[in-house]
Design goal:
heterotrimer, A mainly alpha, B mainly alpha, C alpha/beta, A: mainly alpha, MetI-like fold, 10 helices, 75% helix, 0% strand, globular, B: mainly alpha, 81% helix
């Protein structure tokens, strides 16, 4: 039915896609799968179905709850630092703030793009080397990466602003900083908060991952549990992560609705 | 005059917010035992590290070509598989098609579950279960894409125009026919958009999946890091950045010519 | 007093915005600028406070040239000129009070305004300005909760708080309903007469121009084609200038006349 309606271009692209897919599928290395077997799969499922509730809370600082709290703390601090530092970056990246010297904005945008391009994992590795393993490395990694992401988003919102609002108060004598504080900030504040909250959520998930390279949080115990095939432990940790993210999702969702 | 009559009339509300944020900040600092001075104290280490970083080992570049292509293939295959499964699933998850709140809620819950777990952890899990290698990487990406695109599609379907659907059911079409003739055309362009977006995200993600053994260039990244060979790490990262940039540009071109 | 001295504006793409404008506007006048869309009304108005630059000529406000003013002088001159725009341009999330007070920003240093340290007198004036336009009960209301007409009156209150002797209004009633239009125009006339302020309004409605102003300036393709009293602006004259009866209210008037004469 829709085949006839598709343009020649679409057909060609879809055929190319199909060829690429088949090529990829046939040239992949499936050797790793040899180690898998249905009984092993059952083992895994059985283990996953019996979460190790003892790990949830046992008073030490190494139990699930403390680790989850730590992970949230890493994400929170990282996002806070990033939000604060993203603002000055936005000030030098937005073209509507530099009508006379647009080359400055190229510099700001370049910084953002560089920070965004590096996967957080790489930053985590670097910071583990610089400040040592532990949650602080995670904080720095998330913080630095998010500066790039938030910087780009903040700049986009700033550049999409209706300049007439700014013109209006300039026309009656306001100077540059007054337009920032009386027009731009009141307008952008709810948008920026919403973006920051969204990225806090993303940061929590990153923070869970970064433990992989020693940057603290729930990542390290999880990886360890996976590699030692302790499926019950894996199960309870995953449950903890999912529940935490879900709760945070709801909370930030409510706050973001109120910001409208 | 009292503060209530000035522009600061909401001062108690603002103060409360500031205090709350401050509490969050302090709490996080304490819990992560953060010491910002450390960043500057270890600057000598940082500079030593950075100086090695600034000299990428270009001679290693040819050896990176094959892993990079494998990585791209991995992401392409994974994306396509994920997309293929996402289509029926997102239809099932909407109340529009099933009209049964329990069924759609159940599917949404399942989707949420999959989306919550970070990609890298998912990959680690799959590697432990299915073994190392690119196939596992494909699986990870497929599952991740499936989760992400289903969610996006679900939201897209929920916001479409109901007119054509009513019209179709009025003339006696069944659920399947309604899905194909009334719903699909409306969300087709959005689907294409999400497909491209998913591919771009996956290319980035797939580059590090190898770190946990799921194949691709991440494997070499892991080994180079373990050997403290920062010059190699540097060229690997550069290759990744370049590839991602190229893929983004190509994707944009193709997208523009099709839509 | 505002003096246009041989002013021209040519846009970078070659389009002529204004051509050889020579005007003198005395204090206390109520001037309406009319013309077709694109005739240069906005350009003319906005060049008075230099929101739009000019390529030739000089514009002097009370003796000081705004064309040649530096940043500091520009600010000083601008706070003497109020602006009311077609699309209100209030900061939606800010309260009415804050929006009106922003008219005084030209008198404050950056630091004081950042901390919102306005003087008692300014707060008092804000209250009085809002009373004048009939919105005293909306002091702490968020601006986006007001209707179009109310937002426009907030703009007027802001111009009042500036205590500016000159008020510019760029199509202030174009997006308002007929009743609110009358109210806003009456407010402007009131301000012009009781507070002796110079009011310059861009209008695309000739009847409104005739009803409220003491002087009408008609523009066509960037040039002044009529400058005189409303009485002198007869329909024949309009016909002469624009070559056709294009103003819609005009068509409405003809219908009225026909209906009345047939009764």
């Amino acid at each position: 039915m829709m085949l006839r309606e598709m343009s020649k271009k679409t057909m060609i692209s879809l055929i190319t896609l199909a060829i690429l897919v088949v090529l990829s599928a046939t040239t992949l290395d499936y050797s790793g799968l040899r180690t898998f077997s249905p009984s092993m799969g059952m083992d895994v499922l059985r283990g996953l179905g019996q979460p190790d509730w003892g790990f949830l809370y046992d008073g030490s600082s190494e139990d699930l709850l403390s680790l989850l709290l730590l992970t949230i703390g890493i994400a929170c601090l990282g996002t806070m630092i990033a939000t604060v530092l993203a603002v000055p970056i936005t000030l030098i990246s937005a073209v509507n703030l530099w009508p006379a010297h647009p080359w400055v904005t190229k510099l700001g945008k370049f910084i953002c793009n560089v920070l965004r391009a590096f996967p957080e994992l790489v930053f985590a590795i670097i910071f583990v080397k610089v400040v040592g393993p532990g949650p602080f490395a995670g904080v720095m990694a998330i913080g630095v990466h998010q500066i790039g992401m938030l910087g780009k988003l903040f700049t986009e919102e700033m550049e999409a602003m209706d300049e007439r609002l700014v013109e209006e108060v300039q026309a009656v004598g306001a100077n540059f900083w007054q337009t920032i504080f009386y027009v731009r900030i009141p307008y952008l504040m709810p948008i920026y908060c919403s973006l920051a909250l969204n990225h806090f959520e993303i940061a929590v998930r990153s923070a869970a991952t970064l433990g992989l390279v020693g940057a603290g949080g729930i990542g390290a115990p999880l990886i360890f549990a996976i590699q030692t095939r302790s499926w019950s432990k894996v199960s309870i940790i995953l449950i903890g992560v999912v529940v935490t993210v879900f709760i945070l999702d709801q909370i930030t969702g409510i706050i973001r609705k109120k910001l409208r | 005059m009292s503060l209530k009559e000035t522009v600061h009339f909401k001062w108690y509300k603002h103060l409360l917010i500031v205090l709350f944020l401050f509490a969050c900040f302090q709490g996080s600092v304490w819990i992560t035992s953060a010491e910002f001075s450390q960043v500057f104290q270890n600057s000598s280490q940082m500079t030593a590290f950075l100086s090695r970083f600034i000299h990428p080992d270009f001679s290693y570049l040819p050896k990176l070509l094959e892993p990079m292509i494998k990585t791209l293939q991995m992401s392409l295959l994974g994306t396509v598989i994920g997309l293929v499964f996402a289509i029926p699933f997102s239809f099932l998850a909407t109340t529009v098609v099933t009209e049964n709140r329990w069924v759609s809620t159940f599917f949404r819950f399942l989707l949420g579950l999959v989306r919550t777990i970070p990609t890298l952890l998912l990959a680690a899990l799959f590697v432990a279960v299915f073994g190392i290698g690119e196939a596992t990487g494909v699986l990870t990406i497929a599952v991740f894409t499936f989760g992400m695109v289903s969610q996006l599609m679900f939201q897209a379907i929920e916001t479409i125009d109901f007119g054509p659907i009513e019209a179709a059911s009025a003339v006696g079409a069944n659920k399947m026919q309604i899905a194909i003739w009334s719903i699909a055309p409306q969300v087709l362009s959005q689907f294409a958009s999400y497909a491209f977006y998913a591919f771009e995200v996956n290319v980035r993600a797939s580059t590090v999946l190898g770190y946990v053994g799921a194949g691709g260039i991440g494997v070499i990244l892991n080994s180079s890091l373990a050997l403290l060979n920062y010059e190699r790490v540097s060229i690997i990262i550069l290759t990744i950045l370049l590839t991602v940039a190229i893929v983004d540009k190509l994707s944009e071109r193709v997208r523009r010519s099709l839509l | 007093m505002i003096i246009f001295d041989n002013v021209s504006k040519v846009y970078p793409n070659g389009v002529v915005g204004l051509k050889d404008i020579n005007l003198t506007i005395e204090d206390g006048e109520f001037v309406s600028i009319i013309g077709l869309s694109g005739a240069g009304k906005s350009t003319l108005l906005r060049s008075i406070n230099r929101l739009v630059g000019t390529t030739k000529g000089d514009i002097r406000i009370n003796g000081t040239s705004i064309t040649k003013a530096n940043k500091k002088e520009l600010r000083t001159i601008r706070r003497q000129i109020g602006l009311i725009s077609q699309s209100f341009n209030l900061v939606k999330r800010s309260t009415v009070q804050k929006n009106v007070l922003s008219g005084r920003l030209g008198y404050y240093s950056t630091w004081k305004s950042v901390f919102g340290l306005f003087t008692k007198e300014d707060y008092q004036q804000t209250k009085e300005a809002l009373e004048t336009v009939g919105l005293s009960d909306k002091l702490q209301t968020r601006s986006d909760e007001l209707s179009g007409g109310q937002q426009q009156r907030v703009s007027i209150a802001r111009a009042l708080v500036q205590q500016a002797p000159i008020i510019l209004a760029d199509e202030p009633v174009a997006s308002l309903d007929p009743i609110t239009t009358q109210k806003v125009m009456e407010d402007l006339k009131n301000i012009n007469q009781t507070m002796d302020k110079t009011v310059i309004v861009n209008l695309h409605s000739v009847p409104l121009a005739r009803e409220f102003s003491t002087r009408v300036i008609a523009l066509n393709a960037g040039q002044v084609v009529f400058d005189g009293s409303p009485e002198a602006l007869t329909d024949e004259r309009l016909n002469q200038i624009y070559g056709k009866t294009i103003f819609e209210e005009k068509a409405g008037e003809i219908d009225e006349l026909e209906r009345n004469s047939s009764l």
